[in-house]
Write a structure and sequence with these properties.
Blueprint (H helix, E strand, L loop, with lengths): L7 E2 H6 L5 H35 L7 H25 L1 H19 L5 H28 L6 H30 L2 H21 L4 H6 L4 H11 L11 E2 L9 H4 L6 H31 L4 H29 L1 H19 L6 H29 L5 H28 L4 H26 L3
Parallel strand pairs: 1-2
Length: about 450
């Protein structure tokens, strides 16, 4: 490099340019990944009634089936998020896609409840590890002024995948049985892996803070703006100093300890509600006398509402900050969930309220993902997002079990949903406190 050439600040380089084709490639590749992640994660809610009918299981025994993949999601998010901050986002996204594709295909072949539980757990490991790395990779290619918008746009893939699994279940189960839903859920990720190997790049910021050869980072940076030469020996700065030590420890240093605890609280409470509602809305509505295909479609609207939220909430988050948008979403979600319990067997009311609840609950979770990606530095971003999701998965595990317990007690539907509004109220308080402490940062 010429002695007169100035060092390049990578965040400033990205911020000074419009989002280009190469960055959109990263966004759409990660969108495809989380689409299939969402399909496989949410599919169990839509096939569960058919499994219960096929294997003569009472509704109260569906809880362990819901929980098996969530335990895998928990461990995958905690372990693979941490590992990604050591070996890279790209490797983990590809490896996790391969894992959940193989074991979801295996789930379609299960012949007993124990086999189903083991295979859903193993698929969950890949599902849990892929998501935080897709979020981190997208965030690290986005200019700060549009980061929330693009991360949430990418995460529409998860909601669309969840909604697609409901549509596929409603279309295929009557003629081909519940196994067909997981055959598709296993084959499609395996087809995506070669495309990921070909097109998915590593994070430039990760390469810089991890000490990788700078020529590798320079080649990727040049693809962001082909009109601006970036020599292979250019001096590149990540905009932050490489951090030493275990990434988990970094979640509690640099003034981030309180924020980490509050993020964990938000993720725990919101994911508890999200999976409680996603798994039990089809079952409870079917139990109220609504045909199973209609109950599945009502449940699908929960994810449709979340998808719409991702498309419209990112801009106000970038414009006004997540700390102002999220309290409104969580608070409105708590009210909607409480009202949902009074819809009875009115299909139209259930559809409207379920869609609006999904807008707030699923959309609120996607907004929290974007907030976590912004809150943590590059050296701990996958770990930070992964551990938020991992702690949240504990809530996601508890949610379906609480639903199973309440159904077994024959609790009235209004009381079940009123109880479900409580965690969202707690999440509202947590994000409000976090905003008061960190908004200035």
């Amino acid at each position: 490099m010429s002695e007169s050439a100035a060092p390049i600040d990578v965040p400033a380089f990205i911020a000074d340019r419009p989002v280009g084709r190469f960055q959109w490639l990263v966004v759409w590749m990660c969108t495809l990944t989380v689409f299939l992640d969402g399909y496989d994660t949410q599919s169990v809610a839509f096939v569960a009634p058919s499994i219960a009918a096929d294997w003569h299981l009472p509704a109260s025994q569906l809880g362990p089936i819901f929980v098996a993949s969530l335990v895998g999601l928990l461990l995958g998010a905690l372990g693979f998020g941490l590992l990604a901050d050591r070996i890279g986002r790209r490797r983990m996204v590809i490896g996790c896609t391969l894992v959940f594709g193989l074991f979801t295909l295996g789930t379609a072949m299960a012949q007993s409840v124990p086999q189903l539980l083991v295979l859903r757990f193993l698929a969950g490991l890949g599902l849990g590890g892929g998501m935080p790395n897709a979020i981190a990779l997208t965030a690290e290619y986005c200019p700060e002024r549009r980061r929330s918008t693009l991360v949430m746009l990418m995460f529409t893939g998860f909601s669309l995948g969840g909604a697609a699994s409901g549509g596929v279940a409603a279309a295929l189960i009557p003629d081909f049985g519940w196994r067909s839903v997981w055959v598709i859920g296993g084959v499609l990720p395996l087809l995506l892996v070669p495309l990921q190997l070909w097109k998915l790049p590593e994070s430039i910021r990760f390469l810089l803070v991890s000490g990788a050869p700078r020529a590798q980072a320079a080649r990727l940076l040049a693809r962001i703006d082909p009109a601006t030469p970036v020599p292979p020996d250019a001096v590149l700065h990540a905009g932050e100093a490489p951090a030493a030590g275990v990434p988990v420890v970094q979640l509690f240093t640099g003034g981030r300890a309180l924020g980490t605890i509050l993020l964990w609280t938000m993720f725990f409470m919101n994911l508890l509600d999200l999976f409680f509602l996603q798994n039990w809305i089809p079952v409870i509505t079917h139990g109220a006398g609504i045909p199973v295909t209609t109950a599945v479609l009502i449940g699908t609207l929960f994810q449709v509402g979340g998808t719409v939220s991702c498309l419209v909430v990112g801009w106000p988050m970038d414009r006004f900050s997540a700390y102002r948008v999220l309290p409104f979403m969580y608070g409105a979600g708590a009210i909607l969930v409480a009202v949902l319990g009074h819809a009875g067997s009115s299909v139209s009311a259930l559809m409207v309220l379920t869609g609006l609840a999904g807008f707030c609950v699923v959309g609120g979770q996607n907004a929290a993902n974007a907030l976590a990606a912004i809150f943590y530095p590059t050296s701990a971003r996958s770990t930070g997002v992964g551990w938020c999701l991992g702690i949240g998965r504990i809530g996601a595990i508890i949610g379906p079990l609480v639903g199973a317990f309440l159904v077994s007690l024959n609790w009235p539907t209004p009381s079940i949903f009123l109880l479900g509004a409580g965690p969202l109220a707690i999440a509202t308080v947590a994000v409000t406190v976090m905003g008061a402490r960190y908004r200035a940062r």
